[in-house]
Amino acid sequence: MAQSTRETERKYEAPSPDDTSWLPELTGVDGIESVVERDTEELDAVYYDTDDLRLAGTSATLRRRIGGADAGWHLKLPLSDDSREEVQAPLGDAVPDTVRDLVLSRTRGTELRPLVRLRTIRGTRQLVDSQDTVLAELSVDAVHAASLRGGATSASWTEMEVELAQDADPSLLDLVDKMLSKHGIERAHHASKLARALEETGVAAPRLPDKRAESVAPGSAGEEVLTYVEKQVHQLVDLDPAVRRDLPDSVHQMRVACRRLRSILRSYRSVLDREATDPVRAELKWLGGELGAERDHEVLEERLRTGIQGLPRELVLGPVTARLQVWHVARSSEARQRTLDALNTPRYLSLLDSLATLTARPPLRRKAARKPEKVMVKAILKEYDRLAGRVAHALELSPGPECDTALHEARKSAKKVRYATEPARVPLGKSAKRLGKRVKAVQQVLGDHQDSVVARGALRNLALAGHTTGEPGFTWGLLYGQEQAVARKRERELPGVWARASKPRLRKALRS
Q1: How much is the pTM?
Q2: What are the tens digits of pLDDT across the range 87-115?
Q3: Residue 53, by phi and psi: left (phi above 0), alpha (psi -120 to 50) or beta?
Q4: N or C end of the chain, less CB within 10 A?
Q5: CB-based contacts of 295: which residues, under 8 Å, 6+ apart?
């Protein structure tokens, strides 16, 4: 059974593990009342990775460590600059299946092998406040690294870590950092022990030729688009472990990353060859659809539950809450399994391979070398014109199923316009950001309208299910009417919101 914690720390260069006279007195730091020395520990860790260092290449590390209070398998995943999530699993000879699954989006099914061995003698000091609460731990580590790839390559060094205690104020790290810097103690040049071990033991790995560096001109449309694509690919890869563990909002964020990638690959076909990107877009659509079942159910259940909770008690007739709960459990379990099944298919791994190839060897077209202003404006306005046509069509229709469908299509177009503006916000400046903001307002109105359409379908089904067992349908009908009123309200709001997003000066500003 794996468990996770958030690790927030900073690493420093250290001259010696034996004579620590170089270490300043930290009781002078605000909040630190005393420094308590702990027993010295001997730690022995073997780090695992693929032959081409796919974990290290995405700032993740996996080790099997003995010694210390937390012996076992440790997987560290990047969060922010100073923080990582550490997932721990019990000690065993083989990589645990739970851990192997959590790195699958990075390894893409490639075998994990022992890479380097790090033996560490650690001296620890606890930084304690006036209430005897441990605020942080300062560790001075004497490290010996040895390559496990053959030969006798090894390296030794000393480093220091300051790790924040759980729930401690992050500003403490800044205060300690200031004190250490004042005494000439510099931040470490490597992000982790593994990074330094890989460099100093000479462990190398074959790499794909960096065709991007050779072919993408700085400041070009190609660079802007590819930078955005890489960000979304990294987002998708990083979110995979969170989705597998069912962390809050992770499915939604991963689905959005899929949508952003699909949209950008479509909008910027003048930059990236569609013969290479269209198959990737098709697979992203498949993955988004598999994730969508779980995400859509989350949104729908919350909307229905909130609607029931907002009614006066006397208007909730029959076992309404219980029926919603039964419906939710059945649907959410099915949707959750659909998500997990998708993430464990060869099709998903193939998609990840395709995305890795796309970013490493981008299929650039001639216009990729051009300045971004004209190329990106043209792409944005093409999506914008498509949105304008769909909104105009929807506004011509009377309320009903045909109008609902037209508004839903307009909503999807609004998303494409907004996503197209995102990689253009640096080269195009405020005009792209302003257009994206106005179009987002249109999308939100249309999104709430579509949610009401979906909610009405679910409410009708719940009412029918209750009717077969003799339950009153009054409350379901009342909620149905409320959702219908929401839809009509959004339809009335749309012309005004669209008018603000379709002002000629927005187009003019984008072109200028």
Answers
A1: 0.90
A2: 999 999 999 999 999 999 999 999 999 99
A3: left
A4: N
A5: 251, 252, 255
